[in-house]
Specification:
With 512 residues, this protein is an alpha+beta fold. Among the domains are: 3-79 and 138-179, no CATH class; 81-135 and 183-222, Phosphorylase Kinase, domain 1; 423-451; 457-509. The protein has 20 helices and ten strands. It has helices at residues 8-26, 39-49, 51-60, 69-76, 87-93, 137-155, 161-181, 184-197, 231-236, 241-259, 292-306, 310-320, 329-343, 350-362, 373-390, 398-408, 410-413, 420-447, 456-489, 494-509; strands at residues 101-104, 110-111, 115-122, 127-133, 217-221, 226-227, 261-263, 271-273, 279-281, 287-289. A hairpin with a 4-residue loop joins strand 3 (115-122) and strand 4.
Length: 512
């Protein structure tokens, strides 16, 4: 392990960055004499801290409920791009690989926080892309996670129950993801599974060479194309960008709503287009799975949004775990309706939409929100795809442009049949089993054996309520006991004993 991973100056910079995040989330101007890092400086601080914090910033950049617009805009500017490894570090990673390649360009064509990509040729003359893991990145990431978890433990008591849970979800999911992302072997497994799962799609994935890859190096076919945000080549080759964007959205419908297995990092550097207007997807370090129940809840949420049934939309949010069990449904429905009205207004500019949306979001600070692990990356992907769309289409947004495509594909997502006849035959096949379930349910009701399942969301609410009740009783009870103890020790303590007794009784009577 390199010595500078626990360098005091670096740990202090991490402390300042995390404290800034926590102060912004709590809407506080300072803690003692510490103030948040300014918006102009925060991206510079993140880039100087390297891989772990760049990845964390990219996840947090989707949290408009956490950060004000000035900071969100700066977090969105943090790019996963770093200078290449030094020559000495490169030589430590690229050991004895000359026997594999006929030619290897030591100057990378792309350099990011986890690794860098080189152009090379195999002995048979085949052109390949070689991704090398950065030297010492595993040790650095593990050290960073220890520091992050230490400071999170220190700051955790400052937060409410729901904010605490939401932060825990972000940090837990981030920690799990980045540890997988620093393994080239894991990325190879992701690429293999992705290629097999979506082999019938019209999207191009690199071919992998497993026999010459290892945990430090991933060898893939070299896919010719240009970045999604390369406007010059888009126009030069007369690419129908609206069709390409629709293809991308449809592919993500397939990934998130139908298969439940998706590429979670589709930024412009990972999404290429070739001269034939085909999409090329690169970098499979960040691939996520969506549990089936979560997938069904997302479908219910989209259906409610399309029908503009905002109460059902909020129920779906609660089922996903985004809003708390006890959140007032009618109040949140009004908030959601305002947000949808803003983004569905064609007469508003994109910047105006965002400003109005942030104003409405400010009113939700009192609502108990929390974000489950799966939703973090779904939000991130949605924001990135919307960003790709705005590169070419003015006022492109998720409500107006993406939602209709999603809704159009909901029947596929829930496994609906193409024809009414197919659907009827399916129902007839399931009829005997359904009748058995109905009969069994009536039997359980008549014998008093009916059971009720409680969701994790409800359990979380009950846990919070019980803890609050217990805490409201423990402290005043301790005061009463101390008052009796002081009186038993000496009658001279009668005044302070009486004061403590009265305070304890008052707190017991007027506890929340």
């Amino acid at each position: 392990m390199r010595k500078n991973e626990y360098n005091p100056l670096r740990i202090y910079k991490v402390f300042r960055l995390l404290l800034t995040f926590y102060l912004l989330i709590m809407r506080r101007e300072s803690l003692f004499f510490f103030k948040p890092i300014s918006p102009n400086e925060i991206s510079k601080t993140i880039n100087s801290l390297g891989s772990s914090f760049i990845k964390m910033a990219q996840v947090l950049a989707t949290r408009s409920d956490f950060f004000p617009p000035a900071y969100l805009n700066e977090l969105k500017k943090v790019h996963d791009s770093l200078p290449p490894m030094s020559e000495s570090e490169f030589e430590k990673v690229y050991v004895g690989e000359d026997k594999i390649f006929a030619k290897f360009d030591k100057i990378p064509i792309a350099s990011a926080s986890i690794g860098q990509v080189h152009e090379a040729y195999l002995k048979d003359g085949l052109k390949v892309a070689v991704k090398l893991r950065r030297y010492g990145i595993v040790e650095r990431v593990k050290a960073d996670l220890k520091i992050i978890n230490f400071f999170n433990y220190l700051f955790k008591p400052l937060f409410s129950h729901y904010t605490k849970n939401s932060l825990e979800a972000v940090i837990s999911e981030f920690s799990s993801t980045i540890l997988k992302e620093v393994s080239m072997t894991k990325e190879l497994e992701n690429l293999k599974k992705f290629s097999e799962t979506y082999k019938n799609s019209n999207i191009i994935f690199p071919k992998f060479y497993e026999d010459i890859s290892n945990d430090d190096m991933l060898v893939m076919s070299f896919e010719e194309g240009f970045r999604f945000d390369d406007r010059e080549n888009i126009e030069k080759f007369s690419i129908d960008i609206r069709k390409v964007i629709k293809d991308l959205v449809l592919f993500y419908v397939e990934q998130m709503l139908i298969r439940g297995y998706f590429h979670a990092d589709p930024h412009p550097g990972n999404v290429f287009i070739n001269k034939n207007s085909q999409l090329i997807l690169l970098d499979f370090g960040m691939v996520k799975s969506v549990p089936n129940q979560t997938r069904l809840n997302i479908i219910a949420l989209l259906k409610a949004a399309n029908e503009q049934n905002y109460e059902k939309y909020i129920v779906a949010c609660k089922n996903l775990g985004i809003s708390a069990y006890e959140t007032p449904t009618a109040m949140l429905a009004e908030f959601v309706e305002q947000i949808f009205a803003i983004f569905a207004n064609d007469s508003l500019k994109k910047s105006t939409m965002q400003d109005l949306a942030f104003e409405v979001m400010e009113s939700t600070a009192k609502f108990p929100f929390k974000l489950p692990a799966e939703a973090i990356y779904i939000l991130r992907v949605s924001a990135i795809i919307e960003g790709l769309g705005t590169t070419y289409i003015e006022n492109f947004n998720g409500v107006k442009d993406i939602l209709p495509i999603l809704v159009e594909n909901l029947p596929r997502a829930i496994g609906a049949k193409d024809t009414l006849v197919d659907a009827i035959f399916d129902e007839l096949e399931e009829l005997p089993e359904n009748l058995h379930h109905i009969k069994n349910s009536f039997y359980k009701i008549s014998t008093g054996e009916i059971e009720t399942n409680i969701s994790k969301l409800q359990l979380s609410y009950f846990e919070k309520a019980i803890n609050e009740k217990i805490n409201s009783i423990i402290f005043p009870s301790v005061l009463v006991l101390i008052s009796f103890f002081l009186l038993l020790v000496s009658e001279e303590n009668s005044i302070i004993s009486t004061v403590l007794f009265i305070i304890g009784i008052i707190k017991l009577i007027y506890r929340k």
